[in-house]
Amino acid sequence: MTLAFIVPGLDEAASEKAIAILQNRLSQEQEAALVLKHAHWNVTGPNFIAVHEMLDPQVEVVLAQADETAERIATLGGTPDGRADAIVRNRTWKAFDVEGRAGTEEYLKALIEYYDAFIADDRKAVAELDELDFVSSNIIQDHVQELEKFQWFMRSHLA
């Protein structure tokens, strides 16, 4: 990887490692926004409108998180890759497995499981970034806080 520049206080090796971690997070954030929108369009059943409307703000926030992650990659001198093939190439997580129309309970259970992996991966990234770049770590920590809140909404809806 060729860096355009290095931010003050970081060396090239730390920057490259941080960028690689952030690129993985960016790919999962982009996929998560697509997964959430897929659920939003295809959820059915008596609680349709509540779940449909609960997912829209989550899509917006996750897209904003992806933008923030991409901007951090660029700030570190890297080139964020937001292409669709980057999502597939960088996938280290299990793909979302609900296709087509399904009931609110089925979608919410699948989304909770998806969030389990998403949050765990973000937490792992936070731990790795803590050693490399505390600013990048703080960004992902903020993302985790929002994701945990969204997952709580889903769990509470099912309870």
UniProtKB/TrEMBL annotation:
Residues 19-158 form the Ferritin/DPS domain. It comes from the Bacteria. Transmembrane segments: none annotated. PANTHER family: DNA PROTECTION DURING STARVATION PROTEIN, GENERAL STRESS PROTEIN 20U. Belongs to the Dps family. This is DNA starvation/stationary phase protection protein.
